[in-house]
Design goal:
This protein is mostly helical. It is 59% helix and 1% strand. α9 runs parallel beside α11.
Length: 370
């Protein structure tokens, strides 16, 4: 089916593949007019109500290969931007079509993808890092970017990325193994996805005359989606990574901390102010004035003055009890202070709670300061 027909049918994955396959004819394909005198970009503008990363990628490709199409008028005298606004296209496509041909040329392929199709942009970056065995780039992207963006990249392109891992993993490294496990755990079904040749990724990894991946990666690619889905993530890592990479003494606590950070971030909850740990500020039970003075016996009720405590004592003494357990030492309070400060900081980070952070791991590891 021609490119116009694929876009008209809303089959954007096939349209993207069509553009990718026509390596020598991309410019020609992007300039062809249909029987109604429309460019592929004009057809896309009509069909772009629901945003998806693949739709955005097709749009950027069409603009890149034929920037003049941004100002090409259809038989009704409308530009693609006019069509998109009239058909209530998604904001991302309207933003893309608002470019001038000169702006599109200035931004280039990478610039337009990064602005208007970031999922495709980062997929391309990860492809390059995997081929160059620069896995630190992949981990940095997963750790430092918004979790929604990471989810989209691994949702739409995880299969292709895993195929690259299968093809470029002859040399083992802990970083490579950790990347493969992170990707598989986010999208277990990608293990059973076949490419356009009908091949599973394990077939590439095991091919002795082909890519011949290292035995550790072959073992991971043989796992089933059911096994991945039923195995806790820390357990999965401990099974496939050496102990020095996944410290068993702290990893369970570490994973819990990361999960907590993620929940705090996305539930929009707020932690106690750090200063309150060492010098809590509460309201006086009697006059509601802010105070840091707690009852000397129970340490749970606050009174701003002896007068307020005296006036409330008849009622307060019925519930005033010394706290059970050993009171926290100053060192313990300072450790708690440090932990809350760390959590406050982590919650503000992009991708909070979605991967190993040296700050969390360092805080959990035993040391003289603890």
């Amino acid at each position: 089916m021609p490119l116009h027909g694929l876009i008209e049918d809303g089959n954007f994955p096939a349209a993207r593949d069509h553009l990718d396959d026509n390596t020598e004819d991309r410019v020609r394909v992007s300039k062809e007019l249909d029987e109604r005198g429309r460019t592929p970009l004009a057809v896309l503008a009509q069909k772009a109500q629901r945003h998806s990363p693949i739709l955005a990628s097709v749009g950027v490709s069409l603009v890149f290969y034929n920037p003049e199409a941004l100002t090409t008028l259809n038989e009704g005298g409308k530009t693609p931007l006019d069509i998109a606004c009239g058909s209530e296209a998604c904001a991302e496509i309207i933003g893309l079509l608002s470019l001038t041909p000169e702006e599109a040329l200035s931004l280039g392929w990478k610039g337009m993808h990064r602005l208007y199709a970031p999922v495709a942009y980062w997929r391309s970056e990860m492809f390059g890092w995997i081929r160059l065995r620069s896995y630190v780039g992949c981990h940095k992207f997963i750790d430092e970017h918004d979790d929604e963006l990471v989810r989209e990249v691994l949702k739409y392109y995880n299969s292709g990325l895993l195929r690259n891992i299968a093809c470029y993993s002859q040399i083992y490294s802990d970083s490579l193994m950790f990347l493969a496990l992170r990707m598989i755990y986010r999208n277990p079904l990608s293990l059973t996805t076949r490419d356009h040749h009908g091949q599973l990724f394990i077939q590439y990894a095991e091919h002795p005359q082909g890519y011949n991946a290292c035995k550790e990666i072959v073992k991971v690619l043989r796992l089933t989606p059911t096994h991945i889905s039923s195995t806790p993530y820390p357990t999965l890592l401990r099974q496939h990574l050496p102990k020095q990479f996944v410290d068993e003494e702290v990893f369970g606590t570490y994973n819990t901390a990361c999960t907590f950070i993620k929940h705090m971030k996305y539930d929009k909850a707020e932690l106690v102010e750090v200063e309150d740990v060492l010098k809590p500020t509460r309201q006086c039970v009697v006059c509601k004035t802010s105070t840091t003075k707690a009852c000397g016996k129970c340490h749970t009720s606050y009174f701003c003055s002896a007068e307020c405590l005296k006036s409330a004592w008849k009622k307060h003494k019925k519930t005033c009890k010394a706290p059970t357990g050993v009171p926290a030492t100053e060192a313990e309070l300072r450790t708690l202070h440090k932990g809350i400060a760390l959590l406050n900081m982590c919650i503000q980070r992009s991708g909070a709670g979605d991967g190993p952070t040296s700050e969390v791991l360092g805080f959990l590891l035993p040391g003289p300061e603890h």
